[in-house]
């Protein structure tokens, strides 16, 4: 079973409250990411229902590292826009305290999903449409796949082009290296 990751920068709807509470979109429907994938509306519905029925939670990890849980997602749901998450960084976890400081300073601003593709199709343009995903985790990350969605951090202009451009360049470099 292959676990895939899909990156999405925290958008202006993402909030960090009291240094520990986080909410926002971890995935946005209908947008083509830098890997050529599009998550379709409803892609998470079955997975979220199955997780809820079994009493399983979607994990909050640091940089997709399963040995570094940093908090809990109290709410994970689909709406018309995408996959919305709300959770808490755990202040008793050292890495969570670091993550909170980095988020508040604007040093990191990305969310990424860890999932397994259940159903997908390719369109004529070669884009892969992900219609059913098994969601495992949502991570705080440094470099997301959708650089146009920005975090609205204290004192930061979410439309500032310099960080978006840097993220796009670094993501392109990472993808190029991965294909060598």
Give the low-pLDDT segments: 148-167
Q: What is the rounded distance between the termini? A: 24 Å
Query: What count of helical segments does DSSP give?
Result: 3
Query: In which range does the helix fraction lie?
Result: 10-25%
Mean pLDDT equals: 79
Order of helical and strand elements? EEEEHEEEHEEH
Strand content: 35-45%
Shape: globular
Q: Report the major sheet.
A: 9 strands, mixed
Gyration radius, rounded = 16 Å
Number of domains: 1
Structural class: alpha+beta
Total E-strand runs: 9
Keywords: Hydrolase, Protease, Viral release from host cell
Protein name: Prohead serine protease domain-containing protein
Domain Prohead serine protease: 18-154
GO molecular function, one term: peptidase activity
Fill in the keyword field for this structure.
180 residues, alpha+beta, 3 helices, 22% helix
Question: Could you please describe the fold and organization of this structure?
Answer:
The structure is a single chain. This protein is of the alpha+beta class. The chain has one domain (4-32, 55-116, 135-178). The protein has three helices and nine strands, in the order E-E-E-E-H-E-E-E-H-E-E-H. The chain has helices at residues 45-54, 94-105, 161-178, and strands spanning 4-9, 15-17, 21-28, 37-39, 59-62, 65-78, 82-89, 110-122, 128-141. The radius of gyration is 16 Å and the shape is globular. Residues 148-167 have low confidence and may be disordered.
């Amino acid at each position: 079973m292959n676990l895939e990751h899909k990156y999405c920068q925290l958008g202006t709807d993402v909030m960090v409250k009291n240094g520990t509470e986080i909410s926002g979109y971890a995935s946005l429907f209908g947008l083509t990411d830098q890997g050529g994938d599009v998550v379709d509306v409803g892609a998470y519905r079955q997975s979220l229902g199955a997780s809820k029925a079994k009493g399983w939670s979607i994990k909050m990890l640091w940089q997709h590292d399963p040995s570094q849980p940093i908090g809990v997602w109290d709410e994970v749901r689909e709406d018309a826009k995408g996959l919305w998450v709300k959770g808490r960084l755990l202040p008793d976890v050292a890495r969570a305290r670091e993550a909170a400081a980095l988020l508040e300073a604007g040093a990191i601003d990305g969310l990424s999903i860890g999932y397994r593709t259940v159903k997908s199709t390719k369109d004529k343009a070669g884009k892969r449409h992900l219609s059913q995903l098994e969601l495992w985790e949502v991570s705080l990350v440094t470099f997301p796949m959708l650089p146009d969605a920005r975090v609205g951090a204290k004192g930061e202009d979410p439309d500032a082009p310099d960080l978006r451009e840097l993220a796009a360049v670094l993501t392109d470099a990472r993808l190029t290296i991965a294909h060598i």
